[in-house]
Specification:
single chain; 148 residues; alpha+beta; 5 strands; 24% strand; elongated
Length: 148
């Protein structure tokens, strides 16, 4: 009997390694459950979730070159996420148009001519300093190479 992707099988944990567990399947076949496919949460030590000799229900997620890849977590219901709690280092949620969701802002106060001029002047000075810096680096490099 050949196992196909999506089959749900009963097996027994044969051995446990740092990267996963080997499970004995029907017809004396063996498949592997990778550590990332054990639970819906982060698993640092697989031995906290499985023990040798334990009966497990697994799903076939791959069958290539005689290697059978299995999953336990795909048979478990996904945990409900708390959408109000921000994830670590998570980018802001985006709307369908690709822009981040933001609270509606108060109407912007129009800027005076002096404020607009000051902003333009700051931008010009910043660009000018950047250009001068790159020119100096280039000329310093050229003069140093001529001195040899």
């Amino acid at each position: 009997m050949e196992f196909t992707v999506g089959d749900i099988l009963e097996g027994k944990v044969k051995s446990i390694t740092n990267f996963g567990a080997f499970v004995t399947l029907p017809e004396n076949r063996t498949g592997m459950v990778h550590i990332s496919e054990v639970a819906n949460t982060y698993v640092s030590d697989i031995r906290q979730h499985l023990t040798e000799g334990q009966d497990v229900k697994v799903m076939v997620i791959g069958n290539e070159n005689g290697k059978i890849n299995l999953s336990i977590k795909r048979l478990e219901p996904k945990p409900a996420r708390d959408n109000n709690r921000p994830r670590n280092n998570a980018a802001p949620r985006r709307e369908g148009n690709g822009r981040p969701n933001r609270a509606p802002a108060a109407p912007a106060v129009p800027k005076t001519a002096d404020q607009l001029f000051e902003e333009k002047l700051k931008q010009f000075m910043s660009e000018s300093d950047s250009k001068i810096s790159s020119i100096r680096q280039y000329s310093d490099h050229r003069t140093k190479s001529r001195r040899r």
